[in-house]
Amino acid sequence: MKDNPPILIILQLLPILVVLTAIVNPTLALPLITLLILLFPVILYKFFQQASRDLGRELYSRNPETTEFNQWDEVPIVDSEPMAIDPIFQRIQGDLTLLRLAYPFDEEQLTQAYRRRARETHPDAGGSEREFIQVRQAYERLQGVLDLEITEEF
Q1: Which of 73, 3, 14, 71 is nearest to 42 (CA)?
Q2: What would you report as the CA-atom Rg of the chain, rounded to the nearest whole angstrom?
Q3: Which end of the chain has fewer CB atoms within 10 angstroms, the N or the C?
Q4: Which of 140 and 35 is assigned the larger pLDDT?
Q5: pLDDT in the model for residue 78
Q6: What is the SS3 assignment for 139?
Q7: Cα distance between residue 122 and residue 117, in whole Å
Q8: Burial level of 43, CB count in 10 A (0-12/13-18/19+)?
Q9: What single DSSP character describes residue 105?
Q10: 60 touches 67 (CB < 8 A)
Q11: Which CA distances in Å does 145 have to 51, 94, 110, 151?
């Protein structure tokens, strides 16, 4: 049982408490056994209620199209369609990786990432000229994407 409410946990632990009490102090065992007998239908009802929910979830996970639920709160929340990847992100994914920049980004983040990578890859700082040029080109492409997004908003 996955999401046991506190009352169910207490009801499940009650028989253990009765047995331990009977071992330690047999005079208290009789009232606790009486209480346990009176609460047994509640324990049984709660157990079957939770088992029914778990079974419904299991059946739903196996075949979501044919599973029916009696109450709206028993239906598992699942995304029916996977999220579509942003087409802009697909085009600039390599540039983002090269600049070590997370998407979405703003102009300030782009500039900071470019400056950091330019310092690392600049030929005067021990980097290669080819990689420095790739970083600069990636920055220019991402700058173009930012300009495109700004014009699309207005």
Answers
A1: 14
A2: 31
A3: C
A4: 140
A5: 57
A6: helix
A7: 8
A8: middle
A9: -
A10: yes
A11: 53, 13, 11, 10
What is the percentage of the chain residues whose pLDDT exceeds 90? 16
Closest CA to 67 of 79, 81, 52, 49: 52
**Beta strands of 37-152 (E only): which ranges?**
none
Q: Enter the tokens of residue 95.
A: 């540039």
pLDDT in tens, 106-118: 889 999 999 999 9
SS3 helix, strand, coil % of the chain, rounded to 5? 75, 0, 25
Cα distance between residue 110 and residue 139, in whole Å: 7
Cα–Cα distance between 28 and 92 in angstroms, integer?
A: 73
pTM for the whole structure:
0.44
